[in-house]
Amino acid sequence: MERLQSLSDFINKDNHWLVLAGTGAVLIGGITKRKKKSWPKDTVVLHSVDKGIWDMSLTPFAVKLETYFRLADIPYINNPTRQQSSKKKIPWIEYNGETVADSAFIVEYLNKKLALDLNMHLTQTERAIGRAFSKMRKPQWLIIE
């Protein structure tokens, strides 16, 4: 109680400017943006939530992207963050200064940018079956224990 009383005495003794300055500094410090990090050239930076206890991402969309990066031998860095993309999506990537959100758009973007085709060994029929399965699956992920 004594500490609270001394704080109110401090505020009441013409120290309003000091209290306002301190409050302003805290607010401005919380609002300012961090400097943009410099990432290695030709490396995908995956911005996603932290990994779980088994070193696997907590979001299935990030797992999909990390699997794709490993299959395609694309160098990537995982940057754990809760910051969303400009489209309010997680995960999202940065690649040589460009940002892309949504896992499906990311795969499509990197396929075009890096001239990749992980399905080139498939026949037309196999490609059609794969496309049908990817379009017919439920958009929700079910986790069964």
In which range does the helix fraction lie? Answer: 40-55%
Radius of gyration: 24 Å
Q: Which residues sit in consecutive blocks of at least 5 with pLDDT less than 50?
A: 25-34
Strand order in the largest sheet: 2-1-3-4
The biggest sheet, with number of strands, parallel, antiparallel or mixed sense and barrel status, is: 4 strands, mixed
Given helix and strand content, the structural type is alpha+beta
User: What is the H level of CATH, i.e. the homologous superfamily of the largest domain?
Assistant: Glutaredoxin
Number of strands: 4
General form: globular
What's a concise summary of this model?
The chain crosses the membrane at residues 15-32. With 145 residues, the chain is an alpha+beta fold.
Furnish the topology, listing elements before pairings.
Elements (H helix, E strand, L loop, with lengths): L1 H11 L3 H16 L12 E5 L11 H12 L4 E5 L11 E4 L2 E4 L1 H11 L10 H13 L9
Parallel strand pairs: 1-2
Antiparallel strand pairs: 1-3, 3-4
